[in-house]
Design goal:
The protein is of the alpha/beta class. The chain has 9 helices and 13 strands.
């Protein structure tokens, strides 16, 4: 684990997420889960247990598949946004194989349904404050990158966990996003308020303001491409034809090219189905 502020740690888990641990005297708060169910015993032993103590709360930052998979087996109080309780609409015969291909490309286990979410004990609509000893952890709803998206801010430590809102070096998850509000979220994150913060991306680690600005460019370009097609009542094939143009903004290699392509194909298909009149 890497300590980025006093009693604030981050770690890459086996699903590729950058997770957080905020340590207190009586226990800790987890920002996403540092492990999967089959790894929980080994993770909870040794140095990890010395750092975390007994986890009291787990904040689940959104409803992306790997994030849901990582919470299975958790025995602390789970906190999510209330939108995570809304059932997703049934997958059509067109989108179902795309979902499965995307999950396989991301290296996830397809035996667990992404919609079998462990029921949370605490949900909120706009904001919620947790206190660990004298440290405030402010949870806010930011639905740009995900309709159930949460940011977890530690004002006293100048650290903020933003989930998948900032992915400067890889394609974004588009399935459950609101691109207009995503840009609003990013503009807020790029404001003076967060100028001296450590911004923790759920896949890229600790970022600075220049990478937030880069993400603004990515989402602005994708929003412009999709707006033109959606307004013109274009077909799904027309939308999927944008994938090569979007991919040009990144630098996939032999290990990531299929994952990035499948992520965009799944995301654009879901976005089209949710937003096409």
């Amino acid at each position: 684990m890497q300590e980025i502020a006093p009693n604030v740690f981050i770690e890459h888990n086996s699903l590729g997420l950058v997770t957080g641990v905020i340590r207190g005297k009586a226990g800790s708060v987890l920002i996403d889960s540092p492990s999967r169910q089959d790894e929980m015993r080994s993770w909870r032993s040794g140095t990890a247990r010395l750092i975390t103590g007994e986890p009291k709360f787990l904040v689940n930052l959104d409803t992306n598949y790997d994030r849901l998979l990582s919470i299975k087996g958790t025995d602390c109080v789970i906190i999510t946004h209330t939108n995570s309780l809304v059932l997703e609409k049934s997958k059509t015969s067109t989108s179902k194989p795309i979902d499965e291909n995307q999950l396989s490309g991301e290296g996830h286990e397809t035996s667990v349904s992404p919609f079998r979410l462990l029921p949370p004990e605490i949900v909120f609509t706009q904001s919620l404050s947790l206190f660990l000893d004298d440290t405030e952890i402010l949870l806010e709803h930011h639905p740009g990158s995900n309709l159930a998206g949460i940011w977890a801010e530690l004002p006293a430590r100048k650290v903020i966990f933003v989930g998948d809102a900032v992915l400067p070096d890889q394609p974004p998850f588009l399935a459950y996003c609101d691109l207009k509000r995503w840009l609003e979220d990013l503009n807020q994150l790029g404001s003076k308020k967060y100028r001296n913060y450590q911004i923790v991306s759920a896949r890229s680690g600790v970022l600075d303001q220049s990478q937030v600005e880069l993400m603004v460019g990515h989402i602005t370009a994708i929003h412009a491409l999709l707006s033109a097609l959606m307004d013109g009542k274009s077909s799904l094939d027309d939308v999927l034809a944008l994938i090569p143009e979007i991919m040009q903004r990144y630098e996939p290699n032999a290990n990531t090219a299929d994952m990035y392509y499948n992520r965009l194909r799944w995301g654009l298909t879901s976005y089209y189905e949710l937003n096409h009149a």
